[in-house]
Amino acid sequence: MNISENAMIEPGTYLGVDRNTTGHIAVVGNPVTGKILKLGKQAEHVRKKYRNIRKDLQRKGKYKKVKRTKRRESRIAKDINHKVSKRIVQEAKQNGMGIKLEYLKGIRQAKSGRNFRYSLNSWSFYQLEQMIEYKARLLGIPVVYVDPYHTSKECSRCGQIGNRSGKGFKCQCGHVDHADANASFNIALRPPLVESIDRLHVDRDACKGNTDIPKEATL
Ligand SMILES: [Zn+2]
């Protein structure tokens, strides 16, 4: 693979990735085709399973084992993130699209969070973001960020505030959708934040000047 093949593409369209979903790690919307990918469903099962195991161990006073299960759960969560990020980047590559994510401020302070469940959750969000960025960069796919305000409340068809309840979304315009799918389309269609475009230019310049790009981009 030479540098020209690795140069950043200039996509006209973006996949929207919703991470605040009801039961998945990420829901990916392609506003051009209407296709939706729901990824990482097993994560919720893993969370529940380990929560129960820990409750049991705590009751028995086995605190060392509790620690060990936390590490194990983190490893499993990381593995799921690897798979999910790989799938998202592949989908962008196949469609010649960029990737849009919500700019979620809180997740950067996640590591200092006291509550393990909260901190693993937000740490996992951040980790997924880092993995998407890394894998996308290897393939020259731009990753940009959008304002998360009301992404799950607005209608992706008409822009009005709709009615969200559980997994469903309904708008007065008649649009009915899965709530996470609607959010992912909103993310895909939103203009990127200026800061994330600026950073993209830095990346693009770095990409042009870099001659050490690995032969086979390993995802
Ligand atoms: Zn509407």
List the helices and strands and how they pair.
Layout: H1 3-6, E1 14-18, E2 26-29, E3 36-39, H2 42-59, H3 63-95, E4 98-102, H4 116-138, E5 143-146, E6 163-165, E7 168-170, E8 176-178, H5 179-189, H6 194-209
Parallel strand pairs: 1-4, 4-5
Antiparallel strand pairs: 1-2, 2-3, 6-7, 7-8
Bound molecules: zinc ion.
Structure commentary:
The protein has 219 residues and is of the alpha/beta class. The protein has one domain (12-209). 48% of the residues lie in helices and 14% in strands. The chain has 6 helices and 8 strands. The strands form 2 sheets. The chain has a 5-stranded mixed sheet with strand order 3-2-1-4-5. A 3-stranded antiparallel sheet has the order 6-7-8. It is globular. It starts with a helix and ends in a 10-residue tail after the last helix. The structure holds zinc ion. The site of zinc ion has 8 residues, from loops.
Protein traits:
single chain, alpha/beta, 5-stranded mixed sheet, 3-stranded antiparallel sheet, 6 helices, 8 strands, globular, disordered N terminus, disordered C terminus, binds zinc ion
Low-confidence stretches: 1-5, 209-218
What distance lies between the first and last C-alpha atoms, to the nearest angstrom? 15 Å
How many β-strand runs? 8
* Strand content range: 5-15%
Mean pLDDT: 86
Query: How large is the count of helical segments?
Result: 6
Task: Give the helices and strands as they follow along the chain.
Answer: HEEEHHEHEEEEHH
Rg calculated over all Cα atoms: 19 Å
